[in-house]
Amino acid sequence: MSLPSPDHRPGWNPYGTPPRWGWLTRRGRSATARSVLAGEAAAEAARKTSLQLEQERDEEATGPAEPEFPVAGDVHAAAFFDLDNTVMQGAAIFHLGRGLYKRKFFQRRELARFAWQQTWFRLAGVEDPDHMQDARESALSIVKGHRVSELMSIGEEIYDEYMAGRIWPGTRALAQAHLDAGQKVWLVTAAPVETATIIARRLGLTGALGTVAESVDGVYTGKLVGEPLHGPAKAEAVRALAAAEGLDLARCAAYSDSHNDIPMLSLVGHPYAINPDAKLRKHAKERDWRLRDYRTGRKAAKVGIPAAAGLGAVAGGTAAAVALHRRRR
């Protein structure tokens, strides 16, 4: 008995689909049943995914917004800003030194040693304790015997000459946001408190915490009150001010570029790394701190040298070389 040809068998699919799987495809075409099934399944999944995404977008649009920061009217919150390379490009002591050099407080030949120390600090990213001690003694020797009022007056001029044009607009906007929210904003810096106070006043900030040089009857003695406001000392200053002002540090913010200020940044509930050095950037990323970088020259950012260093780095000397020169005399 001969069998019918394949083309005439009842239910025969010439494209290879067995009769019992014919329900998988609605019409005969040049595709396997599995291809048809995969395509239809993918289309259905895409449709469902699209609906799900649309629903999620609707929920995000109508859901609670992210809390605003800073919180307007929160009088128990404040902001603390480091100065050098955070609020202002470069170091305040450099610019102060340029102004003092211009006014004949010291001579060019006395700057070389301090310039080398500062260059080492900028390139290596670490502070040599001996360099710090020598530079501190030299700076104090420069102002010894001068009246505080004299340095304040000169400081106002130096701000206009060298500092006003070096304020980071981005950081200035962050400080203004806190002020607009009704919060106090403080500079916290190792720079002389007189210089820091001038900068804070010019920027419309609340005030400044800075290194305090001893004075008697309005004249500098050449000694410090305690130590420079640096590293852990900044954290202690912020802690003390917060207690005196009735602030809740968990609601406060702090901003800095340097890993040396990690103690201060760790005190507050809202730490920001601004133009961070490598160590602070790594630390901030590990702890999910907010980062802002307002620098444009990546090489300069990596090394940490102010854009207009040049003579500024050299003439920035409130200098260790001064002490050496005076000892020789």
What structural class is derived from the secondary structure elements?
alpha/beta
**How big is the Rg?**
33 Å
What is the first-to-last residue Cα distance?
Answer: 130 Å
* Major β-sheet profile: 6 strands, parallel
Beta-strand proportion: 5-15%
Structure description:
Helices cover 48% and strands 12% of the residues. With 329 residues, it is an alpha/beta fold. A 6-stranded parallel β-sheet has the order 3-2-1-6-7-8, sandwiched between helices. A two-stranded antiparallel ribbon has the order 4-5. Strand 7, helix 10 and strand 8 (290-292) form a beta-alpha-beta unit. Helix 5 (148-163) crosses helix 7 (193-202). The chain is elongated, with a radius of gyration of 33 Å.
Summary, kept brief:
With 329 residues, this protein is α/β, with parallel strands linked by helices. 48% of the residues lie in helices and 12% in strands. It has helices spanning 33-62, 92-102, 112-124, 129-143, 148-163, 169-180, 193-202, 232-245, 262-267, 278-286, 298-303, 310-315, 320-328; strands at residues 78-81, 184-192, 207-211, 213-216, 219-224, 253-256, 270-274, 290-292.
Write the layout of secondary structure elements.
Blueprint: H1 33-62, E1 78-81, H2 92-102, H3 112-124, H4 129-143, H5 148-163, H6 169-180, E2 184-192, H7 193-202, E3 207-211, E4 213-216, E5 219-224, H8 232-245, E6 253-256, H9 262-267, E7 270-274, H10 278-286, E8 290-292, H11 298-303, H12 310-315, H13 320-328
Parallel strand pairs: 1-2, 1-6, 2-3, 6-7, 7-8
Antiparallel strand pairs: 4-5
Helix pairs in contact: 2-5, 4-13, 5-7
